[in-house]
Predict the 3D structure of the following.
Amino acid sequence: MEIAALVVLAVVLVVGASILWSTLRTGMPPMPSLGRAPRAMLELVEAPPEGGIADMGSGWGTLAIRFARRFPRTQVVGYEVSFFPWLVSVLLARLMRLENLRFHRRDFREADLDGVEVLLCYLMPEGMQAVQQRLERDPGSVRWVISHCFALRGREPETVSELPDLYATRIYRYRYQ
């Protein structure tokens, strides 16, 4: 029994260290979008997009999975740097047989946005600034940016939804082009 406990402890430490390392490297932890926020974000995409959907910093995959299930004919891609959240996302997508969903273990700043119409974000302010810089450099076909909690500085959102939760969480939708 002691060996099993040591193995579990070692796995927890390795996973924790891996997540801590990627958080320190990027300044953004892999946080899942929970509660009412994913539903509110889904409601802001009123019809299936003509282009794809990209989750910038997909964490554990929960948001990308919801969008892939809601829009089964739309290609959804998630970008995540942290190894274990990325791995969980890939395994969940395979278990759920979501053929329209892919996860890349890559920094979203290097994402290929060709053919992407909707960007999903649940990033810290620094991450949102990186998204904004990325879009200023090359917006591709991006028409909408939907952000959980954090706004794009200097841009006026088309819609701001305030959720009836403890934190009065805000969901922002920006028309980009």
About this structure: The longest strand covers residues 116-121. DSSP finds five helices and seven strands in the chain. The helical segments are 2-26, 37-43, 62-70, 83-95, 125-137. The domain at 2-175 is CATH 3.40.50.150 (Rossmann fold).
